[in-house]
């Protein structure tokens, strides 16, 4: 009996450890459920609670295996990325880093987190963007992550990241609206990777590294005369969460361990800093609230999103409602609201982009093309990139042989490569465009480029050899030269992989 009891305690600890691992990757509801079981264990029968826990872990493993991998990990949303760039770039500059090497990814994860990986790749969870109304929180978190970059805390992750980067970020073109509707052909967002990217790429820092990043974050924000209250706010939030779930989450298991000394450090700084509690830039704050509404419209439960804004008629609430109605397939209400918003903001490129995505998913392709053109007209060069890709793919959806339209699609895809040079699906779209335009040589060359990015070197080699044969029939010296260069690149890549 003693032996059985001892084994039971050991097994209980193993199950608790396993559940903790699962819980860190899943919603708050599971944490609360687990806490209730832990209370039940203390008050009532140990063996019964042990049985419940054993059953729970089997159920959770089944649910996670079935559903979590089906979730979308990384989304691309042009307006949200623009906002994050506006916050990031000044901090990068004062940190002495080159913003040209900065890449920002939005992770479709409701948990409050952000991290960096593989050099200067910053990952921000949608949950973090949506949670706090003050953009100084985002600025504080990003400044902290940039502190990790500047301190070279990421050196050991660089090689691991570079090995998996192309395989993880395939660059599938998929708008947020298309995600909801199931149409994977076009859109203003891009889906990449798998639902466990955070687990693979996020580093676990020690407390010394965390405090070092905090000190640098405060330094950067102070140089820019930006408020630091957001950094203290999120620290206090995590501390409260740690206290609430202290039986569930081991602070040492967190990627960013919280300590009272870190909170004290920031608090003491804020007591002396003139701009600690200042208001953030008005324009960024306004844009931030709109982005929050937009992400909420796409990612929150539909009825909850509509119900919470039932009696709200400001522009941000209407934007979220338009998106929610679109997800609900109530296109009449959705279109009416977005049209009213555009009427009041006729030069807002992001509204045209959103309307185009709605129209595409209603199979109104020509109308979508028209609105993508409007978006491209009004958006800045980098922000219009995703609209250019979606615009081109809308043209390709027509399966047209119209040379003017096809050349327009090719032109926009090529222009988008200035900021999306590693987006594999651009090459695939270009292959389709060249094929429809009866340019087999370039179509095959694009398929070679596409497969090379995906590290499918054998397929890439096959396509490049076929491309060379077709290109010999043309006078396209640039394409021929690129084909020869790609052969050498593929050859060197293969030799390197053998070592």
Describe this entry's structure for a reader.
By secondary structure, the protein is mostly helical. Among the domains are: 2-70, no CATH class; 74-272, Zincin-like, CATH 3.30.2010.10; 439-499, no CATH class. The protein has helices at residues 2-23, 28-43, 46-67, 78-94, 126-131, 135-150, 155-168, 176-181, 197-201, 207-223, 229-244, 260-272, 282-299, 302-308, 315-327, 331-344, 349-361, 365-378, 385-397, 403-416, 424-436, 440-453, 457-471, 477-498; strands at residues 74-75, 103-107, 114-117, 121-125, 172-173, 190-191. The strands form two sheets. Strands 1-2-4-3 form a four-stranded mixed β-sheet. The longest helix has 22 residues, at 2-23. It is globular. The model is unreliable at 1-19, 21-25, 61-72, 156-160, 163-201 and 249-253 (pLDDT under 50).
Helix content: 55-70%
**Could you name the CATH class of the domain at 74-272?**
Alpha Beta
Q: In CATH terms, what is the architecture of the domain at 74-272?
A: 2-Layer Sandwich
Q: In terms of quaternary structure, what is this? A: single chain
Low-confidence stretches: 1-19, 21-25, 61-72, 156-160, 163-201, 249-253
Q: What percent of residues are in strands? A: under 5%
Number of helices: 24
Spatial ordering of strands, largest sheet: 1-2-4-3
Tell me the Rg in angstroms.
Answer: 25 Å
Say which CATH homologous superfamily of the domain at 74-272 is assigned: Metalloproteases ("zincins"), catalytic domain
Structural class: mainly alpha
CATH topology of the domain at 74-272: Zincin-like
Q: What characteristic shape results from the CA principal axes? A: globular
Determine the N-to-C terminus distance.
57 Å
